[in-house]
Amino acid sequence: MCSSDLRSSSSTSNESWHAIFSDVQSVAPSIPVTGSHTYTLAGGTLPTDTNGYTASVVPAATLSADFSKQVVHVTIPSFDLKDSAGAVKSTWSAATAAGGVPIVRGAYFSASTGDGNLTVTSSVSGAVAGQLAGAFVGDFNASNAGALLGFSLNAGSVAGTTGATGTTVSG
């Protein structure tokens, strides 16, 4: 989405949109073809929902890659969304399937409840759904390697309904 698309957007008052930006990446990410690595959380955004409820801390999401199998495992631990007075309004968590999620083209991965690769749990009543997507950045053999992860966890099966959205950066 370019900046002019953002300027022409009508309103984000009832939406929870998160993004992390970087300089232009001049080379494709470089990841190993063997071995494994567990990424360390470097930061992220506080998850929010369409009601304006916010988590008080960035969830300590874990991201581990099994490069030999070309899969990743992601866990978003339980976190609470609270109102402005600090009252817990909902609790959320998610994890990828036991077998992992495929790394596509050595660069990115995605999972959803719809494809059976993601399990979402929540304190809200009724069905829950969700999706996550991520990408590797930099050269794994250099000091500039990392991974990005974004997620949307929803009450019901429709994105944009009450739920939690957030992003993390790992190094």
Description of the structure:
The structure is a single chain. With 171 residues, the protein is mostly beta strands. The protein has one helix at 3-7; strands at 36-39, 41-44, 62-66, 71-82, 88-96, 101-102, 108-112, 118-122, 128-137, 146-155, 163-170. Strands 1, 3, 4, 5, 6 and 8 form a 6-stranded antiparallel β-sheet that branches. Strands 2-11-10-9-7 form a 5-stranded antiparallel β-sheet, with no helix packed on it. A hairpin with a 5-residue loop joins strand 4 (71-82) and strand 5.
- Care to count the β-strands? 11
What are the segments in which pLDDT stays under 50 over at least 5 consecutive residues? 1-18
State the major sheet: 6 strands, antiparallel
Percent of residues in β-strands:
35-45%
Helix content range: under 10%
Spatial shape: globular
Rounded to the nearest angstrom, the radius of gyration is 16 Å
Query: How far apart are the termini?
Result: 25 Å
SS-derived structural category: mainly beta
Could you give the order of the helices and strands? HEEEEEEEEEEE
Give the averaged pLDDT, no decimals: 80
* Total number of helices: 1
What are the main properties of this structure?
single chain; 171 residues; mainly beta; six-stranded antiparallel sheet; five-stranded antiparallel sheet; 11 strands; disordered N terminus
